Amino acid sequence: MDGTNGRILVVDDEKLQREIIILTLKKEGYDLAEAAGVREALAMMEKREFDLILTDLMMQGQSGMDLLDLVQKVDAEQCVIMMTAHGSIKTAVEAIQKGAFNYLEKPIEGDQLIMAVSKALEHIGLVRENRVLRKRLEAIQSIPYIHGEHPKMKEVFRIISKIAASSSSVLIVGESGTGKELVARAIHDGSTRKDKPFMAINCAAIPDTLIESELFGHEKGSFTGANAREIGIFEAANGGTVFLDEIGEMNVSMQAKLLRAIQEKEIRRVGGKINISLDLRILAATNRELEQEIKRGAFREDLFYRLNVIRINLPPLRERGSDLKTLAEYFVKKYSEISGIEVEGISKPALRLIMNYAWPGNVRQLESVIERSVLMAESNIIQPEDLPAEIGSTPGLTGGISIDLPPDGIDFEELEKGLIIKAMERADWVIGKAAPLLGMSYKTLQYRLEKFEIERPERRSKLS
Predict the structure, then answer these.
(1) DSSP conformation letters of 438-450
(2) What angle do CA 232, 235, 238 make, to 5 degrees?
(3) CB neighbours of residue 363 within 10 Å
(4) In this structure, how many other beta carbons lie within 10 angstroms of the beta carbon of residue 316?
(5) Separation of alpha carbons 301 and 303, rounded Å
(6) Residue 161's CB: how many other CB atoms inside 10 A?
(7) 268 to each of 257, 271, 306, 439, how far by Cα in Å?
(8) Side-chain-side CA neighbours of residue 175 (13 Å)
(9) Residue 346 pairs with which residues in a beta bridge?
């Protein structure tokens, strides 16, 4: 705790008692201060923070109980231990009920005092750690792209909150559009490096001939076009975090140089002669199966183990259907505000189409679709016809279906049932062939066939 084992304030109106306690605890390496009464203790607490307050219960003027009441008004989690004579144990128990951590009965043995203080400081350390973790988790869940109540997303949040404060490398795995960079930013923002730079680079977007210069920088004249010295992303982010997106696209030669930089914690600019020391956290992301790339010889196994210290698997949007509605509604609100168009929500038929779509482009695609739908909406509620063709019609059936909504509306379930029957007829009642026509998985179509009690005509006639 701030370079010491803990900051302790000893409050007692008897000087000899204070000196005995301070002498005992000083040997344990604690940062100690003393006060002869409540008023003096409060004055000291205004100037500095203490991890623990050891206070006598019965003092002239204001008591230890008064101090407990005053302290808790400022910080309900302040750790307080009461010291009491035998005759006032009942009052000390009342203090425990009011929030004191413990009480010690005088005369206090040295070992007893040391053990009680150690337990109290361990307790307050855990309380503060949990407070930090809660704040990190709240910050993470406030990011709409990675917000979610689905169990797979809750597991992502749990991992982030646990590992954000460390300096370990993290590998984030997920399909394009699942929010890998946002997870990386959440990790950085929850770390002790949050006030330092966060630098991101898409390894797939940089030509092989330039990626070393982008990462490590270069000296003037080191290659054609190098007209001045340039520092790279690693040097610019020193002290902070570097996010290497699509790390699986990096060529093997550059992987070796990256591995050395991570191991040695230093780089050398292209064309340079001086090694530059680094203090960086490396976060990497990929949509590839790097274990398979290792077998093909396309990715270094030693680099993989350096990056894969902690792994976060981001689920595709189609596997977290319970979050679709929340995300869609968030994007409606966002783009309504940005565009100045008053769109208040999504109709139930439009929401059904959104929920049934596979979303191959994941959250990024959903955001794009909702942005377009807000701009195209004819009313303050997004309707099926406001959605793009690939969302608002069933792919594979005559290239898309145009539906006129009658004044009285339609029975959406009957419409869906009719489309499923058409798809099954076209696929000769083979579920595996009909599912792609409807943009559904095999299991989803199988569920809907059971739900609507749809059966092949010949089978129905045989059963009857």
Answers:
(1) HT--HHHHHHHHH
(2) 145
(3) 26
(4) 18
(5) 5
(6) 22
(7) 10, 8, 20, 51
(8) 13
(9) 382
- Give CA–CA dist 33/182, Å, rounded: 45
Architecture of domain 393-464: Orthogonal Bundle (1.10)
Amino acid of residue 329: E
Q: Which fold has domain 142-315?
A: Rossmann fold (3.40.50)
Strands 170-173 and 31-35: unpaired
Q: Residues spanned by CATH 3.40.50.2300 within the chain? A: 7-131
Cα(211)–Cα(419) distance, rounded to whole angstroms?
50
> What is the spatial distance between Cα 217 and Cα 229, in angstroms, rounded to a whole number?
8
- Rounded Cα distance between 319 and 252, Å, is 33
DSSP sequence for 299-323: S-HHHHHHHTTEEEEPPPGGG-GGG
According to the model, what pLDDT value does residue 415 have? Answer: 77
SS3 of 242-256: the string is: EEEECHHHCCHHHHH
Instruction: Fill in the DSSP letter of residue 404.
Output: P
Averages of pLDDT over runs of 10 residues in the chain (464 residues) are 71 92 91 93 87 92 91 84 79 83 88 92 80 54 60 90 92 92 92 90 91 92 85 91 95 96 93 90 95 94 96 91 88 91 91 88 92 91 89 46 56 78 86 82 80 74 45
Nearest to 79 by CA among 112, 51, 105, 38: 51
Q: Which of 245, 173, 162, 242 is nearest to 205 (CA)?
A: 245
Q: How many CA atoms lie within 13 A of 160 on its CB side?
A: 31
CATH fold for the domain made of 320-392: Helicase, Ruva Protein; domain 3 (1.10.8)
Q: Hey, which CATH number is domain 7-131, 3.40.50.2300, 2.40.50.140, 1.20.1250.20, 3.40.50.300?
A: 3.40.50.2300
67: nearest Cα among 50, 83, 52, 55: 55
Kindly state the tokens that stand for 245: 């997106």
What does the alpha-carbon distance between residue 57 and residue 66 come to, in Å, rounded to a whole number?
Answer: 9
pLDDT of residue 395: 40
Give the pLDDT score at 134.
58
Beta-bridge partner residues of 10: 34, 54
Segments of the chain assigned to CATH 1.10.8.60? 320-392
Predicted pLDDT of residue 396:
35
Query: Scanning the structure block, which residue is given the tokens 């009680």?
Result: 116
Q: How far apart are CA 459 and CA 464, in angstroms?
A: 9
- CB within 8 A of 319, min separation 6: which ones? 150, 152
